[in-house]
């Protein structure tokens, strides 16, 4: 595939320039078109980047022509390239979906702002993934977060959406401040902001309190940003009250990108031995992750709004991913990355199908949607397939990730964890099964209104694209698994070996 | 009538403001264009520049400032500033350098760097000034900044939701 080093920077520049063009155009259709075309080009660029990186190359791009430790450098290896492709594909798919859905959710004069915000959010997310500079990560994190707050606030239930957005703003800013301070401490200790450079210099100052404080600040900041178990409270409301296209986009990308920062910092910059060996990050991560996926699965069972069920389920899935990451083994990391990829597609599909229901029925309350499979067969079928995938039924993408998750846990000798993962999958059966039961087997008010039609084609197309992708990766899991293995080994190899000569830092 | 009285009472302030406005503007331009030799730059200059309009709004009423600098102009200006910045980078890409490598902009790398930072800072200045003034509009009026007034249907739509 055609590849040029400049592709990496174009990934950021295109959406960044398309956003102000949307604002100038100020026309709903034109700005949608601008967003769509730029996003399409981004997908092509990212796929070319992915194929280049999967051949074993690492892309390094010096911004402004300034060499690495002085200037900002873009650094792309396996994990970045994979996630860049996923974020851009999900953005494209949800963007196609958004055209119809926001008609009912957002007042027309605001549509151009929606697309401008969307493109800025995409800029931020891709920027986080692409950059090799620790401070630049923070800058892009703020770009993506600020535009996300704005997108969430556009939700159709104005008052709740504003409150949800404000809450996310407060917590997100606290998280970002922790990350910024942490990066500041690292800078103070090492005198550099370039990630690879920090990773090289850290072993010399590992024992200093500055580094340990920076480490813990970054950990806490990322916990908030990823909606880790005790600090997740911004997520359910944000996902519920955001416009449905935005929740679909966020559910697939936002927390995944924060997880990427986590992987980059603790596997690459600090190094596995230091993070998990000396500072015992795994011991903090694992209990929280396990409690997280267990408790959140239980909470999801008792929700009445489908979007809330999915939101709590998202937090549970973050728990799985963190449990996998905390193993600090190659298998664990691979399982985590596989689940990041698969869950991104599954959750986006689920949120899009709920969005379709919302588009026709105006509600996502489980008690008012009895027997809607008769009126919206394609949407419900998609929901059911994606729901099965979330549970981990064989032949779906979810099965592949659960399989690797459980076998990684068993490889590490964590039998109890493996059992708990399976138990909480049973709870997923309950909360998804409950919705499926309402959709298929209950009769009630919703069936009376047979006038309601199936969702428009332009909404079903992106939905079924995601479903087909997730079923395909379920049947032929090798595609995702190979990419995840490749990125995991690269992430583990890229770290300098620092197992020698480090005592207990405390 | 009351309004007129208020206007008259603030005559002194108004006259002084009229004196100050060109000077502040001049200072803003100085900070902007002298930024690459001394202290200053696009960000500071943008804020100083915007402070003129904020001052005008505070003294003469925000409605009159809106006539001078309409929200629509601001919308275009803040986008143009960003495009100017990002566009400079694209030009350097097209001239064969890395993104935002100013050295390739002119045949002489030093003056290329000079002009590059000059244009980029101008973009920053325009965007910052426009954003500052629009923030002031947002907080000082009950109307929606983004120009929704021209769409009465929209207002109803939004009200019915909340």
Envelope shape of chain A: globular
Sheet bearing the most strands of chain A, described?
A: 2 strands, antiparallel
Number of helices of chain B: 7
Q: How much of the sequence of chain B is in beta strands?
A: under 5%
How many angstroms does the end-to-end distance of chain B come to? 36 Å
pLDDT under 50 segments of chain A (min length 5)? 495-506
Shape of chain B: elongated
Number of strands of chain B: 0
**Count of domain modules of chain B:** 1
Q: Using the CA coordinates, give the radius of gyration of chain B.
A: 20 Å
Distance between the amino and carboxyl termini of chain A: 50 Å
Order of helices and strands of chain B: HHHHHHH
Oligomer: heterodimer
Q: Strand tally of chain A, please?
A: 2
Mean pLDDT of chain B: 83
In short:
The complex is a heterodimer of chains A (506) and B (162). Chain A has helices spanning 7-25, 28-54, 78-105, 111-130, 134-153, 158-190, 195-205, 209-226, 234-241, 244-269, 272-278, 281-301, 306-325, 330-361, 377-391, 397-411, 415-441, 445-448, 457-475, 478-493; strands spanning 59-62, 73-76.
Task: Write structural notes for this entry.
The complex is a heterodimer of chains A (506) and B (162). Chain A has a two-stranded antiparallel ribbon with strand order 1-2. Chain A is 76% helix and 2% strand. Chain A has 506 residues and is mainly α. Chain A is built from 20 helices and 2 strands. Chain A is globular and about 70 Å long. Chain A has a domain at 299-495. With 162 residues, chain B is mainly alpha-helical. Helices cover 76% and strands 0% of the residues of chain B. Chain B has 7 helices and no strands. At the A-B interface, helix 1 of A face helix 5 and helix 7 of B.
